[in-house]
Amino acid sequence: MKIAVLTERRFGETRVATTPDTVKKLVALKHVVAIESGAGLSAGVRDEDFVAAGATVGSAADALKGADIVFKVRAPDSAELATYPKGVALAGLLEPYAAKAEAAAYAAAGVTAVAMEFVPRITRAQSMDVLSSQANLAGYRAVIEGAQIYGRALPMMMTAAGTVAAAKVFVMGAGVAGLQAIATARRLGGIVSATDVRPAAKEQVASLGAKFIAVENEEFKAAETAAGYAKPMSPEYQKLQAELVAAHIAKQDIVVTTALIPGRAAPVLVTEAMVRSMRPGSVIVDLAVSQGGNCPLSKPDEIVDVDGVKVAGFTNLPGRMAADSSALYARNLLAFLPLLTGENAAFAPKWDDEIVKSAVLTRDGQVVHPALKDG
After folding, report:
1. Domain of 10, in residue numbers
2. Are residues 349 and 213 in the same domain?
3. 103 found inside a domain
4. Between the CA of residue 326 and those of 41, 129, 139, 178, what are the distances in Å?
5. Domains in the chain: how many in total?
C-alpha cells in the first residue's frame, strides 16, 4: 500500500509519524512511503534522511495522491481533512473521546479513521500502545522540566562550603508516566515519594526506591478489583487520604501529578490550599493540564507563580523530546500496520480483529465506534 506521512499542522507539535528506521522496515515489507517535505525537521530528521531510507519526498498533494493510509501524530483540522482522497485511511492520535463532530467529519469525507488511543491494553497489543510509549517520555520529561524550574540541585552535595540538601520529589499517580517520573527523580538524586489509589502500586513504587504515601487501612487493602482497577473509595477514606497528602505536600520541593481518566476531566489532586502551603521556590508539574488539570491553578503551557510556588502545565511533554517520542510512536504504528494489511502488502484491514474493532472510528462513510455513534 502507499503510506502518506504529512507535516504536523497543530501548533507546537514537533513529532513526526515515521522515522528513517521505520521507513526502511515499511519499504522492506513492499509498501511505498511518501512524505511531505519538511515533515521531520522539528524531530531532527532531514528530507534526505527519509530519501536514503527509501521514501519519496514531495508536496502534501504528492504524498496524498493515491495513498491508502495517512500516518499522523495528531488529528487533521478541517482544512487538511478536505485534501484527503476519499477512501483513504487515517491512523493517529485523534483524541476520540466524545469527538462525535470529528468522527462525523471523517465519515462524511469517506475516511476510515483509526484512533491509536483506543488500541486495547492487552498483551498482544503492547507493541502498539501509543499511550504507554508517550507517557513514559512524558513522565521523564516532567521531572526534567520540574528540576529546571526549581532552580536548585536535586541530589545532596557535600562541599567544602557546606552541604546542599537533596530535593524532595512527590509523584502523584504510579501509572506509566508516574513510575517513569519516580525512576527519573531517583536517578537525579532526589528523595522521592509517591502515592496511588491502587494497593498494587505500593510494591512498584518501593521497587524504584521511593516511599509510598497512603492511608493503608482495611479499605485501602481491598481497593482494587480483580482486573487491577481501583474501586471507588468512601468519603471517609478520601478525607483521611486528603489530610495525609496535604501534610506531605507542604514539605515537598517538586510535585508531579499524573492522574488522567480517559474521556473525563482530570481529578483534582492538589488544591489551592495545598499549593499555598508549599515553600516559595517549590514546583508543581501538572501532566493533566490538557484535561482540566490535577491542580485547579495550572494553565495550559504556562508557568503560574502562586506566592513563589511555580505551577507548570505542559500540554505536550513528549513533543519536547521529538526525536525519541517520534521514534517510539513510529514503531507503534509499524506494529499496528499488519492488522490493516492483506496479501501482497495490500490495504485489507482485519475488521474482526479485536484490536481493529476497538480502534476504528469510521468505516464506509459511517461512524462505527459505539462510543461515538448517535443514540
Report:
1. 2-129+322-367
2. no
3. yes
4. 12, 14, 16, 21
5. 2
Q: Is 163 in a helix, a strand, or coil?
A: strand
Domain check: are 150 and 247 in the same one?
A: yes
Same domain (yes/no): 79, 20: yes
Pick the closest to residue 309 from 256, 254, 245, 259 (CA basis): 254
Length of the chain: 375
Give catalytic residue positions.
121, 126, 129, 132, 229
373 occurs within a structural domain:
no
Q: Pseudo-torsion of CA 359, 364, 369, 374, nearest 10°?
A: 160
Q: pLDDT tens digits for the chain (375 residues)?
A: 999 999 999 999 999 999 999 999 999 999 999 999 999 999 999 999 999 999 999 999 999 999 999 999 999 999 999 999 999 999 999 999 888 999 999 999 999 999 999 999 999 999 999 999 999 999 999 999 999 999 999 999 999 999 999 999 999 999 999 999 999 999 999 999 999 988 889 999 999 999 999 998 888 887 776 655 566 778 888 889 889 999 999 999 999 999 988 778 888 999 999 999 999 999 999 999 999 999 999 999 999 999 999 999 999 999 999 999 999 999 999 999 999 999 889 999 999 999 999 999 999 999 999 989 875
Q: What angle do CA 336, 342, 348 make, to 5 degrees?
A: 80
Whether 10 is covered by a domain: the verdict is yes
Query: How far is the C-alpha of 109 from the C-alpha of 210, rounded, in Å?
Result: 50
